[in-house]
Write a structure and sequence with these properties.
With about 850 residues, the chain is mostly beta strands. The chain has ten helices and 43 strands. About 10% of the residues lie in helices and about 45% in strands. The protein has a 19-stranded antiparallel β-sheet that branches. Strands 8, 9, 10, 11, 14, 15, 16, 17, 18, 19 and 20 form an eleven-stranded antiparallel β-sheet that branches. A four-stranded antiparallel β-sheet has the order 3-2-5-6, with no helix packed on it. The termini are far apart. The relative contact order is 0.08.
Length: about 850
């Protein structure tokens, strides 16, 4: 009996640990790499294709002794494997029997006109039918979708691996994906799996997604920039003319304008399942443009894609991104409908260079689609139901459930992440990344201090100002959060502070409440729109460290606030804020905010503003993740409409002003293909009633050397004061399109942009009449004030390019409230974006 158990144990162990891993490179007789070569285990369906450098990697939990190498126009080879882990180099010889029929796929040196390009006929048919393929052909549909998202560190050496896995290294190393090119490892630190049922109705234009199961394991807190990166592979449809990734616009290889950005080569055709299938390779015309390199396969008659593989080139103008690749396959249903089968997305991100040896972060997302059902219509109300996540374990499933969903590689990754998640070494790295990304660090569990990047500022009232904030933080999905700050000015020798609490009252509908108290110095008079926080966040305006001119146009403010917010439908919020503000000039001798009260014939220096602020916030297409009081935002471009109606109450709780204010902001970034993104913002503000300077809308000025959104860089504070105004802020970002075409300059990886800002407004006689402030009321009512300029962004070194420099001019304007402001200026922006 003991011997039988021993044999069974040995057999089980050999089954569990038996696996075959093969990596290598395929070359031609001239030692040039061969891309897209088929490599598979003989006698199986497990295989892959080589990448642009001719490299490949395949693995299986089964034992195989032979791999087959097959490529059209070359002699096939079978390689005998010597062990379970192999690294090989294969040289293929040209097949002389088919040499005359083969087209070697390389980017053509001379471009054909599209009418003479053999690929044009096929692409034209794809364009004609691309809106008539797939799920759009049926009235109603449903399917299952399984996805996995793996996040980790790349290019880690064996010494690092030993420190992380310690005594488990020898046991677990075979689970770790290896980069055989430089003998390093990919270490996963987070794995998220999700199983969904998707229902759609094309006649109603509605889609419903029900999460059936979700499982997360590993270290989830890596910072907002990593969080944003994890959302890049959402809803990528190659049939669209433009593909949005990392808030950039890529031209799709099958765009109707594709011949302006790509070179196409029709390489060959073959018969697959009694259908003729064409292979078209595509190459960027300009290597620095936001386009892809790869190949697609398309069938005759229906001209639907059966697969597409594409990747960006190393010199594409993207920050932090070293590699980005997409692979999609499609299956045939009912003899005519091509449906998504699998999606594989891969991204590698580094901070300094795009060198393959540099350590970085990698992301792999896999999606599998199955169990399609057509024309089983549901009721109209069915598609409107949305299941909202309310707790972390809401979609918890047993391990046996996930084993049915996973493939063997994901199962290995799960086991590895389960071992790594407790590693102190990994936690130190993830903590450092989080601090660099978000500016917060965690001295004790549940409390974070920061933001470290906004600790120092300067103005004429406080002198040098030091600020430190804090927030409660357990996970990204905290239902309750407290945040606040303390500040000290070395000139006025006074302490300021703010405290805010927010709570998610309900998940469906999504209802949040918040309350705050602030005793601080602020720049008044700007149009403020309700965003996430009640406490104004540290900005680059009056609280920046590098400023021009004098800025004593500040106020001491004490605020008590309460807010109620409800999300009526997805990304459409409605809310109301009640507040009491006591406002007085921070330096009455140089800057008075006094106003005249005609009723009691007195000049009043202190404003008691008691008001309600009702708002609507609509941001269709916004991507959000999480189910806590603060959700994480994705990178997808989307429009934004914010409407505020503010009403002040005189005589209630000591209020001494009575006015109404309506403010509207509309922003809508518009991708314009290869020309980049046009980003316009319109702001309209109107104040009704007699309104003192302390609560009146001033044209937003900027006396710093930093760029601040929706402000005018060459105006001083309170140069213009208006109770009715219209602003326009327009930016055209070319995403490197122009710079990529200038010799020598294109090597710098810069991006260009154009800017134009204008404002027109007026000030009423009644508001001028009650004014007792130290400034003159001037509005841009005779002619609009405007600023224009151009900028260069993506300035930096290697893969870290956070700087933007704008060169700005203004139209004719004479300042009546102080020294003449400059007619030309250079402003710097800092944004760690992709």
């Amino acid at each position: 009996m003991k011997g039988i158990l021993t044999i069974v144990f040995v057999l089980l162990c050999s089954t569990l640990w038996s696996q075959t891993k093969v990596s290598g490179v395929v070359l031609d007789e001239n030692k040039e790499p061969l891309p897209y070569v088929n490599v598979f285990f003989k006698g199986s369906t497990t295989g892959t294709t080589t990448n642009e450098e001719g490299e490949f990697y395949i693995q299986s939990s089964k034992n195989f002794s032979i791999i087959s190498i097959v490529f059209l126009g070359f002699e096939s080879q079978e390689i005998l494997l010597k062990s379970k882990i192999n690294k090989i180099k294969v040289v293929l010889k040209e097949d002389s029997t088919t040499l005359d029929e083969v087209i070697i796929v390389k980017q053509p040196k001379k471009r054909l006109k599209k009418q003479k390009n053999p690929a044009f006929r096929i692409l034209k048919e794809i364009w004609r039918r691309k809106k008539k393929n797939g799920l759009s052909l049926v009235k109603a549909y449903q399917y299952n979708q399984y996805s996995s998202r793996e996040l980790g560190f790349g290019n880690m050496d064996s010494l690092f691996m030993r420190k992380v896995l310690r005594n488990k290294f020898n046991k677990m190393k075979n689970y770790v994906q290896k980069n055989y090119e430089n003998n390093t490892y990919y270490i996963p630190v987070e794995l998220i799996e999700k199983s969904e049922k998707v229902y759609g109705n094309n006649s109603l234009g509605k889609i419903r997604r029900d999460i059936e199961g979700e499982r997360k394991i590993g270290i989830h807190q890596l910072g907002k920039y990593v969080d944003r990166a994890t959302t890049i592979f959402k809803e990528i449809d190659v049939y669209n003319d433009d593909i949005y990734i990392l808030d950039k616009t890529f031209v799709s290889p099958i765009s109707t304008s594709g011949f302006g950005s790509y070179d196409y080569v029709l390489s060959d055709s073959s018969i697959v399942n009694n259908r003729k299938e064409y292979t078209i390779h595509f190459f960027p015309r300009q290597k620095g443009d936001l386009v892809f390199k790869g190949h697609l396969k398309v069938v005759d008659k229906s001209f639907a894609l059966t697969s597409i593989e594409m990747e960006i080139l190393k010199n594409v103008n993207l920050n932090f991104v070293r590699d980005l690749s997409i692979r999609k396959t499609f299956l045939l249903k009912n003899d005519s409908i091509y449906l998504p089968k699998t999606n594989t997305y891969k991204g590698e991100f580094t901070f300094l260079t795009k060198n393959k040896k540099e350590k970085g972060i990698y992301l792999v997302k896999n999606e599998k689609f199955s169990k399609y059902v057509f024309d089983h219509e549901k009721s109209t109300d069915f598609y409107d139901v949305k299941i909202v996540q309310k707790r972390g374990n809401q979609y918890k499933k047993e391990a046996s459930y996930w084993k049915r969903k996973q493939d063997e590689k994901i199962n290995e990754t799960f086991q590895l992440v389960n071992k790594i998640k407790t590693s102190g070494k990994i936690k130190k790295i993830t903590g450092t990344i989080y601090t660099i990304s978000d500016g917060y660090f965690t001295p004790i569990t549940g409390i974070q201090l920061g933001n470290l990047f906004t600790t120092t500022a300067k103005n004429d009232i406080e002198g040098v100002r030091l600020r430190l904030g804090f927030r409660t933080f357990k996970t990204n999905n905290d239902r309750f959060r407290i945040l606040g700050h303390g500040a000290y000015g070395f000139k006025d020798k006074k302490i300021k502070f703010g405290l805010e609490a927010r709570y998610l009252l309900s998940s469906q509908p999504r209802i949040t409440v918040g309350a705050a108290y602030i005793d601080d110095v602020e720049q008044m008079g700007f149009t403020k729109f309700n965003e996430r926080n009640l406490i104004p966040q540290p900005d680059k305006g009056p609280k920046a460290i590098f400023v021009r001119g004098d800025n004593y146009f500040l106020a001491k403010v004490k605020k008590k606030m309460f807010r109620f917010d409800v999300e009526i439908v997805n990304n459409f919020n409605m809310g109301i804020k009640f507040a009491h503000e006591k406002i007085i000039s921070a330096d009455p001798d140089r800057f008075s905010m006094a106003f005249f009260n005609q009723k009691n014939n007195k000049t009043i220096n202190v404003t008691n503003d008691v008001y309600s602020d009702f708002y609507l916030n609509y941001q269709p297409g916004r991507v959000t993740e999480g189910f806590g009081v603060d959700r994480q935002l994705g990178t997808k471009l989307h429009p934004k409409l914010l409407i505020n109606y503010k009403k002040a109450y005189k005589g209630i709780f000591g209020g001494n002003v009575d006015y109404e204010k309506l403010s509207i902001l509309y922003n809508h970034p518009l991708p314009v293909g290869k020309f980049g993104v046009f980003d316009p913002t319109l702001i309209v503000a109107k104040t009704f009633g007699k309104t003192p300077l302390s609560v009146l809308t001033a044209v937003p000025s900027n006396q710093t050397y930093f760029l601040t959104p929706n402000t005018f860089a060459l105006l001083d504070y309170y140069d213009f004061v208006a109770d009715s105004s219209v602003e326009g802020h327009f930016e055209q970002h070319f995403n490197g399109l122009l710079m990529n075409r200038i010799p020598l300059i294109k090597k710098l990886g810069l991006r260009s942009l154009l800017t134009f800002r204008t404002v027109y407004g007026s000030i009423s006689k009644r508001n001028k009449k009650i004014n007792r402030s130290s400034i003159k009321y001037v509005a841009p009512n005779r002619k609009p004030y405007f600023e224009y300029g151009f900028g260069i962004e993506n300035i930096g070194y290697g893969n870290l390019r956070p700087l933007r420099v704008d060169f700005i001019w203004r139209g004719d304007f004479k300042n009546v409230n102080g020294p003449e402001s400059p007619k030309f200026g250079i402003r710097v922006g800092f944004k760690t974006s992709f």
